[in-house]
Design brief:
Elements (H helix, E strand, L loop, with lengths): L10 H8 L3 H10 L11 H4 L4 E4 L6 E5 L1 H9 L4 H14 L4
Length: about 100
């Protein structure tokens, strides 16, 4: 969904916290084909505005994610090795359908 200045999270809220404007948010949405950068769910399917994902160390904005993907990264504390172990776990325990 396109960023709406009239929503609870207004442009004044987004800019100081993430350093992007509503226009930049909308540009990112277009660049990501209006979908989550990880799982690919579209904004239309999701029905909510995507979260602005950022590096907690540097503050750099990385992309726009659905709440599920953004929360998952947070639970893994952005640790690549833990995420790789999780992928291996799923690959090794995935049952053929």
């Amino acid at each position: 969904l396109e960023y709406d200045r009239h929503k609870k999270q207004s442009g004044a809220y987004i800019h100081p916290k993430y350093g992007i404007t509503p226009e930049q948010f909308n540009t990112m949405m277009v660049e990501q084909n209006n979908s989550c950068a990880i799982c690919g769910v579209t904004a239309e399917e999701y029905g909510k505005r995507f979260s602005i994902d950022h590096c907690h160390t540097t503050g750099t904005v990385r992309g726009l994610l659905c709440m599920h993907c953004n929360t998952a990264l947070g639970h893994f504390r952005d640790d690549v090795e833990s995420l790789e172990r999780a992928v291996k776990y799923l690959e090794n325990t995935h049952e053929a359908v």
